[in-house]
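INFO  loader      accepted 1 record
INFO  loader      residues=111
INFO  predictor   begin
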Amino acid sequence: MPDPPVLAEIKSIGPHSATISWSEGFHGGSDQTVYYEISSDNTYTTWTSVRMDTIGTSETISIRSTAVNNLVEETIYNIRLYSTNSLGRSEMTDISTFTTTGIALVQFCFI
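INFO  predictor   done
INFO  writer      dumping tokens
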């Protein structure tokens, strides 16, 4: 079974998107596919799973970034990662939480 990915950072949080930085865990000798699950449900019962990347065993990129899009402004989101391969499915990472920003209002003053 592969090890879970490592969620390194959540950054560039805006009203409708955020960027997550992550690295893959040990693959166990088999290519792995990495997913994130996201939820805005504070009861942790409703999650949406999104495929991020398939990583070959010979790849050497240590940190990867993925855009998380179609978010709602001023909303608290929970995110966790996992990976799958021919050996099975990894454990989930710990849940990380972030809040999207509000949309900035621009005021014009005409003189």
